[in-house]
Amino acid sequence: MTGAARYDDIADFYAEGWTDVLDDPASVRLLDLLEPVAGLRVLDIACGHGRISRELARRGAAVVGADISEALIARARTAEHDTPLGIRYLHADVSQPFEPDLPPFDVVVCAFGLSDVDDLEGAAATAAGALRPGGVFACSILHPCFPGGPGVSGSWPGDARYHMEGWWRADGELSSLRRRVGANHRTLSTYVNTFRRHGLRLDKLDEPEPAPAWAAERPEAAKFPVFLVMRWVKQ
């Protein structure tokens, strides 16, 4: 099943569950790593229904959002129509080359989208290729080393090993999204080495702790690193 079909089938569930309220620690830190964005050109890859795109536009960035899911892009365009922020949304596979008329961007961002992209090499090429020299690529992901806990699926299947990469569908009762769309597990070294191959230099790496309410409901899972946020600079 393609990334398009996975999210097209659950677009309503996703849009209703992940709103424009961006108060989770990983999103807060991701946005902090991009500031100041006022006046910058930003490309949001795997943008979904545009929640990060809209926040960046509210902060003064000129934003283009792209996603493979036609259903989610339709919701993003509806939001832009209802409350115009000057965002352009593209229905596009972010692991493929983008439109040639797009000028270089100052920033490329990807919020929790890389595990949904089957072709990481292609996505890294798109991100690096869209940036001007010295531009910033920032991303947030479920920590590749997160083993999960009772009711919470980790980054890799429970009957597998950390070093076994590939797509899989979570079964944890509290892992509601990944039960529906699955995820690609990759090791931390795979992420780092892939980005390095495309001329991106690691500038900042953070492992924000989950929100207290999340941790209180999942105390065993909260003992481990849950989120990873990275900022890279194009050389």
UniProtKB/TrEMBL annotation:
What Pfam families does the record tag this protein with? Methyltransf_11 (PF08241)
Listed EC numbers: 2.1.1.-
Q: What is this protein called?
A: Class I SAM-dependent methyltransferase
| GO biological process assignments | methylation
GO MF annotation list:
methyltransferase activity
* KW Methyltransferase (keyword) present: yes
Could you tell me which Gene3D superfamilies the record lists for this protein?
Vaccinia Virus protein VP39
